[in-house]
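Reopening this ticket.

The earlier resolution said the output was attached, but the attachment link was broken on my side. Pasting everything inline this time so it's all in one place.
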Amino acid sequence: MYKFFSRPQLRRQFSDKAKMSSKLSNTKRPPKDPPDEGYEPTSIDHDGIKVPDYVRPAAFRQFCGPDEQLGPGAGRGLEYKNGQYFGYHRFSFAELQNHALEMRDDRRLKGGVHDTIEEDEEEECDYVSMENMKKLEAECDKIIAQQAKELEEAEQRAKKKQEELCKEQEEKQRCEKKAEKTKAVKVNALLEMTDEQLREWCDKSLQAQLVEKNQGKGNSQTAKCKAEEKQKMEKCGEEEQKKEQEELQMKCEAEQKKKKDEKLKPKCEVEEKNNKEKCKEEKQKKEQEELKMKCEAEHKKKEDEAKNENEEKPPCGTDGSNKNKT
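Inline output:
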């Protein structure tokens, strides 16, 4: 204890530095410091800082927003990874130290076991997982019950089908037995008949067979006739439809031609007028050219006649000159 108190006293006595005054300074509080009272944030709203759950948010200052620039190159994926340094305030050290002491005391009371918050989270997760398991079990029970019902229904259907098949087989066997009995009775009756009775029976059976054949042929012929009549009717209907379609096409084409003629009439009239005017202009040009040609021909004739007259005139003087005689 003596050493603990003696060393700081000696340092203060023999040190050349001026003593710090205990008076409060008149300087203003920095803008990033927390308020004196009521600063109890619940979370750290910044994307560049990752703080563990056991650290209190009060150890950091209040940020302007999640994208606030912490410092030169400070952030999670940037050069300076310790971006928390630019998020501390004046009392951050005291806050962190107090929290660390509290955690140490709690650990000592629990016998040196770390006070982890993950246990509570695991308990909550276990509770949530139990609820989910219960829900899943209920859903599975419903699905199993539906499957059991479907299986029972399928078994009942199979039983019904088997019973129906058995009934059909029994009926077939009864019919076969009846047919065999009837055949045996007929054979016995035939054996007991005389020759005349057998002939009469054979004649009757032959006639009945012929009647049945004729009826079958008649039915087949009537069916064929009906089919032929249907085909003929269908062909007639198709021909009539084709004729109607052709008539409609002819009518449509005639109407289209009329419409085109009506549309082209004013154009044709205008073209005819233009052609007439062009023809008149061409005629006038031709007449003017003919007149010009005639005028030029007459002018040439006159010039030629004047030249000929000048050549035919004799000279005026004896010497062949045009001077007058003295």
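Reporter confirms the inline version is readable. DSSP finds four helices and no strands in the chain. The first helix runs from residue 2 to 14.
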